[in-house]
Amino acid sequence: MNRLDGTVSVVTGGGRGIGRQIALTQAEEGAAVAVLARSAAEIEETAAQITASGGRALAVPVDLVQLGAVEEAMARIEAELGPIQTLVNNHGAFRAFGPIWEVDPEVWWQDVEINLRGTFHACRAALPAMRARGAGRVVNMVGGGTGNSFPAGSGYASSKAAIMRFTECLNDTLTPEGLRAFAVDPGLVRTAMTELQLDTPEGQAHLPGIREMFDSGEDVPPTLAAAVIADIAAGRFDPLHGRLLRGADDRDAVEAEMTEIAEDDRRALRFSGL
């Protein structure tokens, strides 16, 4: 008996990297998995890996910036796989590197729109059915710049800080109805996104620290974030709803401290020093 048997998970940005690993891990735990992204070929490959291992999967190509398309995707998932229990908003964009007077304003805004608006749309489309059932969990991915300044990645950082606050607002709205929302920071993972930072002239010029961190051995495997999210989907970290978990966390230690973390109001986006 697997922890997520009989459940349905939706993973956005599930065609590669961290998202693919999240989808595979959800399936290994027993969930039927819907994999969403704009690239049909990539999500079909993820779905094929799941079905080849005996799982159930559905690849749904969708542009998360288009609300109508997202609503249609969620309706299709409910019709073909069943009620959604877990929504993982893993999609992301980070292409605007450098100070704001150098970056292309359209590219900067696209980072924000894909990350933040895409998360909003996925939640808005999936939550009515979850609310009607009085059960469900949402996981929103955050990252660099969520809780600190990131001058050469201001669009990405602004969107991720906003997603953290959105997660808190969402959670506080949903908790009375039996639903929960969480934020997860996967850490520095070598993905197509980080390769873009390493290989482009703009990334090399404005984000040299990324190369330095990889060269020093900092490279968090995507399996860690996937394991945290599987724990969240299974209810292990329910006392920390509305808060941040990290791929690099010692999950046993976090579980042992959950009461204290909540009482001390840690792992949240708050003003400090006031």
UniProtKB/TrEMBL annotation:
Classification via SUPFAM superfamilies: NAD(P)-binding Rossmann-fold domains (SSF51735)
Instruction: Give the PANTHER family listed for this entry.
Output: SHORT-CHAIN DEHYDROGENASES/REDUCTASES FAMILY MEMBER
Instruction: Please provide, alphabetically and separated by semicolons, the GO molecular function terms listed in this UniProt record.
Output: oxidoreductase activity, acting on the CH-OH group of donors, NAD or NADP as acceptor
Q: Name one Pfam family in it.
A: adh_short
Q: Which InterPro entries match?
A: NAD(P)-bd_dom_sf (IPR036291), SDR_fam (IPR002347)
Question: Which named protein is this?
Answer: NADP-dependent 3-hydroxy acid dehydrogenase YdfG
The organism's superkingdom is given as Bacteria
CDD domains of this UniProt entry?
A: SDR_c
Similarity comment text for this entry: Belongs to the short-chain dehydrogenases/reductases (SDR) family.
